[in-house]
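Margin note: ligand = nickel (II) ion.
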Amino acid sequence: MAIRNIRTIGDEILTKNCKPVKQMTPRIAQLIDDMFETMYGQNGAGLAAPQVGILKQIVVIDVDDGNQYILINPQIIAREGSQTGNEGCLSVPGKFGVVTRPEKVTVQALNEKMEEFTLDAEGLLARCICHEVDHLQGRLYVSLVEGELRDNSELEDEEGEEEEK
Ligand code: NI
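Resulting structure:
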């Protein structure tokens, strides 16, 4: 496994549409392993392949619910309700902003064995799926932010007391 370089906002690759994966190969398996390692190295909850410079429809997610989600060629097939809250992105370092997303989504995707599955997600996982699927379509959350994009230092000030518990 290896940590890959994360592309940041301003890099054109983050604005492009990703291509579907047609078959699993050792290279793609390696990419997925590297995406997890890169994401964990930055304390991220999700990472999409274009963030490491690969225009393929691959997403990895870990929102601390005990699962490591791999979504290949994901399609969100249902959305329900809404949630409004803070969001950040490893490609927009040091920033966060308020984004409204569906409270629940159903996503259809392929796993690492290229088997189709359907996942019902809510809360943080639903938010994360929406954010990562947007990456595959060249969209960053900054285009959805309500109000100002803010610095992480402000968030740490607000949450300082809680984190010391
Ligand atoms: Ni992101």
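The two ends are 35 Å apart (CA to CA).
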